[in-house]
Automatic annotation (TrEMBL):
<dbReference type="GO" id="GO:0044715">
    <property type="term" value="F:8-oxo-dGDP phosphatase activity"/>
</dbReference>
<keyword id="KW-0479">Metal-binding</keyword>
<dbReference type="GO" id="GO:0044716">
    <property type="term" value="F:8-oxo-GDP phosphatase activity"/>
</dbReference>
<keyword id="KW-0227">DNA damage</keyword>
<keyword id="KW-0378">Hydrolase</keyword>
<dbReference type="InterPro" id="IPR047127">
    <property type="entry name" value="MutT-like"/>
</dbReference>
<dbReference type="InterPro" id="IPR015797">
    <property type="entry name" value="NUDIX_hydrolase-like_dom_sf"/>
</dbReference>
<feature type="domain" description="Nudix hydrolase">
    <location>
        <begin position="12"/>
        <end position="140"/>
    </location>
</feature>
<dbReference type="Pfam" id="PF00293">
    <property type="entry name" value="NUDIX"/>
</dbReference>
<dbReference type="GO" id="GO:0006260">
    <property type="term" value="P:DNA replication"/>
</dbReference>
<dbReference type="GO" id="GO:0046872">
    <property type="term" value="F:metal ion binding"/>
</dbReference>
<keyword id="KW-0460">Magnesium</keyword>
<comment type="similarity">
    <text>Belongs to the Nudix hydrolase family.</text>
</comment>
<dbReference type="InterPro" id="IPR000086">
    <property type="entry name" value="NUDIX_hydrolase_dom"/>
</dbReference>
<keyword id="KW-0235">DNA replication</keyword>
<dbReference type="GO" id="GO:0006281">
    <property type="term" value="P:DNA repair"/>
</dbReference>
<protein>
    <recommendedName>
        <fullName>8-oxo-dGTP diphosphatase</fullName>
        <ecNumber>3.6.1.55</ecNumber>
    </recommendedName>
</protein>
Length: 140
């Protein structure tokens, strides 16, 4: 009788979403406070898509949690960025701040608005670098 073999089904990569928030020709950059290997680097705000959430729902939730603002999620910015050796993927969306909200650094060390000529003035996390390359056209 042949022995049974169980093969683990491949998992879909974990989806991480991030927001490109543009106001007055500048984009919001957020400085990480943790974990230690990322502290001091800059990123676009966002986080993990939880089971049962769409990308848009997760990003709206993350903007409330990290920045204290309500947003409307718009179009994708840039391509999917593979993370964690293919175990995760970063998807970035343009978002509009609603109700005249003002972002606050609730989970970051600092926030900074950057114009196109200032994009290289901060050390970006590697995953965000391909998205930064997409921004000059959006900040014009």
């Amino acid at each position: 009788m042949p022995s049974e073999q169980y093969v683990k089904a491949p998992q879909s990569p974990r989806v991480i979403v991030a927001a490109v928030i543009i106001a007055a020709g500048q984009v919001l950059a957020c400085q990480r406070s943790a974990p230690p290997e990322a502290a001091g680097k800059w990123e676009f705000p966002g986080g993990k898509v939880e089971p049962g959430e769409t990308d848009q729902q997760a990003l709206a939730r993350e903007c409330v949690e990290e920045l204290g603002i309500a947003v409307r999620v718009g179009a994708r910015v840039g391509p999917d960025v593979p993370l964690a050796h293919g175990r995760a993927v970063l998807r970035v969306y343009a978002v509009d701040v609603l109700d005249d909200g003002v972002p606050a650094a609730l989970e970051h060390s600092a926030l900074r608005w950057l114009a196109a000529d200032q994009l290289d003035s901060v050390p970006w996390l590697p995953a965000d670098v391909p998205i930064v390359a997409e921004l000059p056209g959006l900040l014009a």
